[in-house]
Design brief:
Elements (H helix, E strand, L loop, with lengths): L1 E6 L2 E6 L10 H13 L5 E6 L3 E3 L7 H4 L4 H10 L4 E6 L2 E3 L3 H5 L3 E4 L4 E3 L2 H4 L7 H9 L1 H8 L5 E2 H7 L4 E2 L3 H14 L2 H10 L1
Parallel strand pairs: 2-3, 3-5, 4-6, 5-7, 6-8, 7-10
Antiparallel strand pairs: 1-2, 8-9
Helix pairs in contact: 1-3, 6-7
């Protein structure tokens, strides 16, 4: 349910469970982590979903075990450590634990209809360990509290204004590919070096 496509120095990973709103199981998280690690030689990585929702977060059938699973942090850490340019091309709503993988990317672009929420306070669980700091770095502490403690739901326009995403596009994958073009054309060693100083 994780589809991998590679063209030259670009890897596109797609969450491919549209009938379940790309809700993530433990097996999918493991496969996604491994796919990200396998793409470390690529100059650019795009993460997207199939269908109208990027991801609804954890599969409700696995919620009791996934709510505190270290797999979420393993996935986001693998993305954050990727030596190339990483972009989340959000084809729809981003919810719950799936927020961490988007926060770990270098950039985020989303469709106009996307919605954003991370309702940990309603579930009585902590967010993934790295998510609050990444969210604060992007949006500031007050907006991070709005999302995590206020259980706010943001539109794409709000997410753009608040700094959670960087662009709104009708075709976020095409927009992400445009952003990746220069990195994919450059020497991979240079791309790694440039990212290291950023």
């Amino acid at each position: 349910m994780i589809r991998t496509e590679r063209v030259g120095n670009l890897v596109v990973l797609t969450l491919d469970r549209p009938d379940k709103a790309n809700a993530l199981t433990a097996a999918m998280l493991t496969d996604l982590r491994d796919a990200v690690l396998a793409a470390y030689d690529a100059s650019a990585l795009i993460l997207t979903g199939n269908g109208r929702v990027f991801s609804a977060g954890a599969d409700l059938q696995d919620i009791t075990t996934l709510a505190t699973s270290p797999l979420w942090e393993e996935v986001s850490s693998a993305i954050a450590r990727h030596p190339g340019l990483t972009i989340a091309a959000l084809n729809g709503t981003l919810a719950g634990g799936a927020m961490g993988m988007a926060l770990a990317c270098d950039m985020r672009t989303a469709v106009p209809s996307a919605r954003f929420f991370y309702p940990v306070i309603k579930m009585g669980v902590r967010p993934q360990p790295s998510d609050p700091a990444r969210l604060i770095a992007l949006c500031g502490p007050a907006r991070a509290r709005m999302l995590l403690m206020g259980a706010s739901k943001w539109t794409a326009d709000q997410a753009l204004t608040f700094g959670l995403i960087d662009d709104i596009a009708d075709d976020p994958v095409a927009a992400a590919k445009d952003l990746c073009a220069a990195a994919c054309a450059a020497d991979p060693a240079y791309v790694r070096d440039l990212k290291s100083v950023l």
